Amino acid sequence: MSNGRYGRFGALIGVACVSSTHCRFLIYSTKNAEVLAYHELKLRQIVHQAGWMEYDPSEIWKNTQECIETAYKNLVILEINPRDIIAIGIVNQRGTSVLWNLETGQPLHNAIGWSDCRSTPILKTLLHNVRHNVDYVRYRSGLPLSSCFSALKIRWLMDHVPAVATAIEENKCLFGTLDSWLLWNLTGGVEMGVHSTDLTNAHYTSLMNVSTEQWDPKLCQFFRVPLNILPRIRSNSEIFGYVLEGPLHGTPIAAMMGEQPASLLGQLCVKAGQNVCTLDDSCFVLLNTGREKLDSANGLITGIAHKLGEKEATNYTLEGAISNAGSTVTWLRDKLQINTEINSNDNVVESLNTFIGESSMISSSCSSSMLNAECGLAAKRSEITFVPAFHGLYAPYWRHDARGIILGLTSQTTSENITQAAYEATGFQIFEVLQAFKRDTPNWDRSCMQPVLTFGGDYAENSHLVQFIADIIGYMLERPQTTSPAGLGVMITAGVTMKVVSLEHAVKMYTPPTDVFSPTTTKNRRELLYKRWDYAVKKCLHWNNYETYEADIELFAQRELDPNLPVRRSVPGSIFLTTSFAMILLANYLKINPLK
Predict the structure, then answer these.
(1) What's the structural domain count of the chain?
(2) Domain of 98?
(3) At residue 410, does pLDDT exceed 60?
(4) Within a domain: 2
(5) Which of 6, 17, 51, 337 has a Cα at 20 to 30 A from 290?
(6) φ/ψ bin of 122: left (φ > 0), alpha (ψ from -120 to 50), beta (otherwise)
(7) SS3 per-residue string spanning 162-230
(8) Is the bond preceding residue 396 a cis peptide, omega within 30 degrees?
(9) Given its phi and psi angles, is residue 78 left (phi above 0), alpha (psi -120 to 50 degrees) or beta?
(10) Pseudo-torsion of CA 276, 323, 305, 189, nearest 10°?
(11) At 530, is the secondary structure helix, strand, or coil?
(12) Quick one: 197 and 306 in the same domain?
């Protein structure tokens, strides 16, 4: 769709990416989506206490500038005309929140990361006030009450950082997620910076009404967040402003989008029913629901996929957010000193392969009392269940009070067994989200929905792990060979703004080669292990409920032995209600027709 006035790669688009671990700037060819030049820098994560995660906003801005300048120079070295760069876009990890001074441009505090849970005490107070209804604001925001969204982070900063309270009182405070922070600085900062955000990032603040697509005064009142500090909400695809300084001076900023919706678009999952899983330190599973906005009754997020123009229709998603995925493996490596590298640890590879083919069939036939040489590693591994709820569980439970547990330890347990249980936990959490997708779409035509999951992210590069996840969830996994799907999604969005790319063109021209991983386990094997996982999650949710501990354990055991227990327990109550109603009818009848 690009014309002859550009070089051999057609029009070029740059994308600034800020994830939870890196800053990047990639320069794409709109002709074939090839990354022609890029540069990345690692982000410094600041951890003051367990469960806290901060970033230095000034460092993020400085790193972004360096990435832009270096990628630009690399393009020149390759003898590609940088004047072919017609626009740039911004993609970022949603939920990470920044407050800064309007007059000085300086951050009022470090940026608080999306997974930071320091606002849990505020969350507990809110839940107490709404009778522990985690879905209290869902009908407006599409989100449950959780510390991972920006509203509670703003509230915490207002309550604990005097500079923030003062700046708000003096009308000198601005709020934004990282897209807003970069946009404001790129467009001039203090002098003339544009204070805007896009739908996907605004949605993750828990302050936007998902129906009106504007800030909701009642949500702001509920969270006690002033409306005047919030940026203007815009679509994903429009001109947000122009770069004021640097090698890209005068270049339009033509797209902004949150990382996970951008990955959905970058993996070319543009039709309703397609879903994508991004596995990094955390894990996000998104189902494209097209233009149908579905209110989840099963612990999922009603989200925004994209809106490609101010007057265009909005496309929606159902989303499951999993807080601990790759970070669980990092915890094992850094805190417990366990070698978790699959490629360099043959024992880990062997333990992962216990799910595959004959090994999985053998292990499914071994009971817990048959831990011997005949059953081997597969049976020993099957005893370990790890629920990594370090600071609570997100989708589909949304329980801030859950805590991680490891069950099934014996004197024969090895570090490889625990490593596999950690990877297994990610698979089971993905499986729970996929099952919630099905329950939230009961009227969808299942014949048109294949059990296929598009897989991406840093951890998706390891084929052993991808096969392992496929075996756990029972889905075919497709791993497109795409460099930075989120970056590609924003490139497509910026291309739509500049009228050099369309969705139809992208699907036709940008579809990459794809690796396919088919499940090799039996349904019975998966159900057996998921049953154990579900049991462990129940204990995880009630780990500190000492008053009812014995009763809970007894009830769990009874339910395992008698699946019809809830039905039978309801019979006496049903008899009571039925007989009571009959007595009322009889009394009314005798009142009208007294016995003579």
Answers:
(1) 2
(2) 12-326+435-517
(3) yes
(4) no
(5) 17
(6) alpha
(7) HHHHHHHHCCCEEEEEHHHHHHHHHCCCCCCCCCEEEHHHHHCCCCEECCCCEECHHHHHHHCCCHHHC
(8) yes
(9) alpha
(10) -130
(11) helix
(12) yes
Is 541 domain-assigned?
no
3 state SS for 492-515: HHHHHHCCCCCHHHHHHHCCCCEE
Cα separation, 387 vs 103, in Å, equals 47
Listed residue (505, 502, 506) closest to 482, CA to CA: 506
Alpha helices in 233-391 (DSSP H): 259-266, 326-335, 346-352, 357-364, 376-381
**Least-confidence region, from 143-157, 343-357, 366-380, 532-546:** 366-380
Supply the pLDDT for residue 517: 95
Instruction: Specify burial of residue 136 (Cβ count, 10 A radius: 0-12, 13-18, 19+).
Output: middle
Q: How far apart are CA 397 and CA 18, in angstroms?
A: 28
Quick one: tokens of 517? Answer: 């991983």
Same domain membership, residue 570 and residue 509:
no
Gap between the Cα atoms of 451 and 476, Å rounded: 6
Burial of 552 by CB count in 10 Å (0-12 exposed, 13-18 middle, 19+ buried)? middle
- Does one domain contain both 585 and 440? no
Query: What pLDDT was estimated at residue 508?
Result: 93
User: How high is the pLDDT of residue 187?
Assistant: 97
- Range with top average pLDDT, 118-122, 440-444, 451-455: 118-122
Between the alpha carbon of residue 92 and those of residues 38, 208, 242, 461, 490, the distances in Å are: 16, 18, 19, 21, 10
Q: Tens digits of per-residue pLDDT, 266-291?
A: 999 999 999 999 999 999 999 999 99
In this structure, what CATH number is given to the domain that contains residue 307?
Answer: 3.30.420.40
Provide the pLDDT for residue 543.
80
Radius of gyration of the chain (CA): 26
Q: Are residues 28 and 102 in the same domain?
A: yes
What phi, psi does 576 have (nearest 5°)?
-60, -45
Q: What is the pLDDT of residue 382?
A: 53
Backbone CA torsion sign across 517, 518, 522, 526: positive
Which residues, including other chains, have CB under 8 Å from residue 77's CB and lie 6 or more apart? none
3 state DSSP class of 361 = helix
Question: Could you tell me if residue 197 is inside a domain?
Answer: yes
Name the 3-class secondary structure at 425. Answer: helix
* CA nearest neighbour of 532 among 566, 553, 560: 560
The verdict on 41 and 175 lying in the same domain is yes
In the structure, what pLDDT confidence band is assigned to residue 559 with cuts at 50, 70 and 90?
low
Task: Read off the pLDDT of each residue in 575-585 and give the average, rounded to a whole number.
Answer: 72
Q: Which residue has the tokens 């390759």?
A: 78
The answer to whether residues 490 and 562 belong to one domain is no
Mean per-residue pLDDT for 337-357? 60
Q: What sign does the CA torsion over 48, 54, 58, 61 have?
A: positive
Does residue 488 sit in the same domain as residue 588? no
One domain, residues 588 and 492: no
Type of residue numbered 486:
A
Q: What is the residue type of 305?
A: A
Summary mean pLDDT of the chain: 88
In terms of Cα–Cα distance, which of 234, 282, 244 is closest to 429? 282
> DSSP 3-state assignment of 132?
coil
416's tokens:
């490889």
